[in-house]
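Same chain as my last thread, 52 residues:
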Amino acid sequence: MPVAAVRRAGVLGLVLLAAGGVELAAAQGALAAVVELRPDPTFRADPALELR
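reply #2:
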């Protein structure tokens, strides 16, 4: 981000930019948690252990 653009944005712009970065990091963390909880589609249970 060019320095001139940051100076034009002022303090409020920097605060909003920082808040957006925190929000983005939180969203990425939530997405990573969802991906981790998803079952592995390549996993195959042992047929001998399956309930009939």
